[in-house]
TrEMBL record, chain A:
Top-rank EC class of the record's enzyme: lyase
Species assigned in the record: Lysinibacillus composti
Name under which the protein is recorded: Tryptophan synthase alpha chain
Listed InterPro entries: Aldolase_TIM, RibuloseP-bd_barrel, Trp_synthase_alpha_AS, Trp_synthase_suA
GO cellular component: cytosol
NCBIfam families from the UniProt entry: trpA (TIGR00262)
TrEMBL record, chain B:
Sequence positions bearing N6-(pyridoxal phosphate)lysine: K88
Annotated catalysed reactions: (1S,2R)-1-C-(indol-3-yl)glycerol 3-phosphate + L-serine = D-glyceraldehyde 3-phosphate + L-tryptophan + H2O
Protein name per its UniProtKB record: Tryptophan synthase beta chain
EC number: 4.2.1.20
Cofactor: pyridoxal 5'-phosphate
Amino acid sequence: MSQLKEAVLATTAQGDKAFVPYIMAGDGGLENLQPTILKLQELGVTAIEVGIPFTDPVADGPTIQAAGERALAEGTTLRKVIETLSSFAEQITVPLVAMTYLNPILAYGTEKFAIDAKKAGIRGVIIPDMPLEERDIVHPALKNGGIDLVQLVSLTSTPERIERLTKASEGFIYAVTVNGITGARSSFQKDLAEHFKTIQTYTDTPVLAGFGISTPEQVKNFGSYCSGVIVGSKIVDSLANNDWATIETLVKASKTALVK
Amino acid sequence: MTTTVKGRFGRFGGQFVPETLMTALKELDEAYDQYKDDEDFQTELRYYLKNYVGRETPLYFAERLTEHCGGAKVYLKREDLNHTGAHKINNALGQALLAKRMGKKKIVAETGAGQHGVATATACALLDLECIVYMGAEDIKRQALNVFRMELLGTKVVSVDSGSSTLKDAVNEALRHWVTNIEDTHYILGSAMGPHPFPTIVRDFQRVIGDETREQILALENRLPNTVVACVGGGSNSIGMFYPFVEDSDVSLIGVEAAGKGIETGKHAAAIQGGQTGVLHGAFMYLLQDEDGFVQEAHSISAGLDYPGVGPEHCYLHEIGRATYGTVTDEEALEGVKLLCRTEGILPALESAHAVYYASKLAETMSKDEILVVCLSGRGDKDVHTFHEAFGGDLG
């Protein structure tokens, strides 16, 4: 079984919910990457989503865009992120999931990327600008390299698409909880429970909710629909302000998801 | 025809967009398939093109320019005479009518020079659609007059400060807006680029340029032209001009990209001549990028050509050798402006001036019994400020 799926299932088997923080690699300098990852895994996160900055991040809201621009200004590239991760790969105990737009992977070379990323502790990839229909451009190389390709399922995905997406997704299924881009939200659509139920009918691959989740209450709430959550903008903000207390509270909310 | 698999032009094109957009693209694809052959829709489109836009536009024999070049007979396809001053209205109107049929009440668009923004704002005013246009902060400074025109037409113009604050960032922001408002909004993309079905839709709404040209030149000269020249940014006027000639293998098709300060300086917008294949804004295409796959800023004196990618059908026509692509620098384009003003009394848009300059040099090398058609995609009123800055008091 994929390490990513295993990590999520191990968490839920204990009665907890998976918690996957998103960090922007290179925000505050690449030297931050090692201490941040080590500290997050110490807090008991399930996996870590490592964002690769890109010049044209069309799926991202203002918070992650700004973090990306800071990381780019630091000279962060996919190559440098992989090098940095490789330098402490033996200390990484949770699976890493790279979130990167497609073009940096194409420029890196898909075969080489799969090999180097695996050595760097990357176990899965999320590519927000590559829908299922286009995945042949990288999927064979990732499969060879033993890296999961995580598919996003959106609120606008039709039932027919949801079935295909969930069956194709590897590691876990990334259920986008809003129509829109990344970033904190105060409210969500009412019929989300139904949406998650639909997704889960097609597969035993765990479903994680992401986009817009920023409070412990939302972590608990979404945790009750599915196997866990991905928190992006709030983590990125907290890291930029060195506010580890907020991050700890969010992670804790996932540990007690079943204790109402 | 140049589509190999639906949505693909050879290996170019595709639908590289967030999952949230996939259902909307499918819906658009199906709606377009339905209406493109719908007699009622086409009649409505033709009505507005004739009575509102002012089509057909003349194919004008540029006699003094021809004399000046001393070679091929040069004809100008006068898209500059369209309502709103450029070819952009052909597509904006077509897509706005399509949006209306699809039951969408709101429109989002991007704009660089402002021509597509003005055309879209115009079509939305005409058809009573709510319109929001994203425009790079840099372009807003360069094209203040067009911003005001859009506002006058009732459109909300939003300044984009991210990235390089130009056209590509405006596309990013328009895509984000569309993802967030997918239920009631149609995105009127302004060039023959982006994810399928946009490159096909935009080309089909612009092919009226080439269709008319073909008929007109047959009526005037009783034969097809030897060469057709058009400028290429995203590539909408050029693909509209080229497409009806693609099967005529004797007609050579030449696209002119913006070389900015010169290809060798790296400060240019020539994706085919100076880029590598990659993915941006939904399509696999030639793209200005660095070795890490980061998109590089394009540079051109003409805001309308200032884009780091190029439409997928052009990439394909280039790869199979059916069209060839040349470049013209900022300085040469300005020379093209002056040339057309002095010989014909026509002030071309900076974008179109790239094609004019290239054609004038090419015509010199051709014989007098050959025919060259230039797509004069827009008029230069919007650029007078730039001309004034560039020429100063020194008009020579």
